[in-house]
Specification:
Elements: H1 3-19, H2 26-35, H3 41-51, E1 60-64, H4 74-77, E2 82-87, H5 92-106, E3 110-115, H6 122-128, E4 133-137, H7 143-147, H8 150-163, E5 169-179, H9 184-193, E6 197-198, H10 204-213, E7 221-222, E8 234-243, E9 246-255
Parallel strand pairs: 1-2, 1-4, 2-3, 4-5
Antiparallel strand pairs: 5-7, 5-9, 6-8, 8-9
The protein binds S-adenosylmethionine.
Amino acid sequence: MTKRHALPARALRFLRDLWHAGGTGGLSWHVHACCTRVPWQATVAQLESVLNQFTPGSSHLLLIGASAGWMLPSSWLQRFKHIDAYDIDPLASRLFDWRHGHMLRSQGICVQHHRQDALHTLSELLNRHPQACVWFDNLLGQHRYRVRDEIQAEQDIAALKEKLQGRHWGSVHDLYSGPTHDMQWTRRIAALTRAGVDNSRIDSQHAQDLLREVGAKGVWVDHLTCQVFPQNTTTTLIPWAFKDRYCHWLQMGWVAPTPATR
Ligand SMILES: C[S@@+](CC[C@H](N)C(=O)[O-])C[C@H]1O[C@@H](n2cnc3c(N)ncnc32)[C@H](O)[C@@H]1O
């Protein structure tokens, strides 16, 4: 690309990331998240209770897809001494600081923000921070929207676990999302998955059976995240009433290296 074209391309990317971050966040996410803080409280509490069962294995966190941390519980962030937060959204650092900065500073926790595509540069980040653990905070399910190529998106996501071998790492991400008949859906799925599920069972047939069982309506989006975790990782499914009669089904898990892979 010539210099003449590089500037408009950069400016366009900046504006796109500011507005919707390729369908993964941006202003539209901030406005929706801010307005639905109260209805989302039950999901945030569930995320917090599962997160606090994970043992991070390092006091340094690479937090990927931090945004403003609308759904991130403070109790989890306080477990670290140093946090490197990555997001492509130009507003993320300011809004994250507004929501969590005061509390983190008062605990002596150092946060550094980076406006960066952390999936594209993951190998480099891991090399630069060999001791840090990694948390993907609800971005992997949107990767398909940024990449706009389902096969590529699924391959990128499935390849992460190889790159992360030997690390403590985890993720919360969308598995499926779609319309529901009523809000009873969240109660039914919570009852169904309270005990946690074995990740190896979440193939698409199993997911379709579960969706039928909980009364999901119409066609649900597959976020291409069935292969995020290594086989047999124990994960928790969490229903998230994203908006009226539209739910996201989140999957959450943590991987600790076995002594042989360390
Ligand atoms: C659904 S939002 C999650 C928000 C956040 N975890 C919260 O609780 O507010 C997904 C975030 O991931 C960011 N994102 C998407 N792809 C990214 C990438 N490749 N590298 C860094 N950030 C990314 C988006 O800009 C967005 O802020």
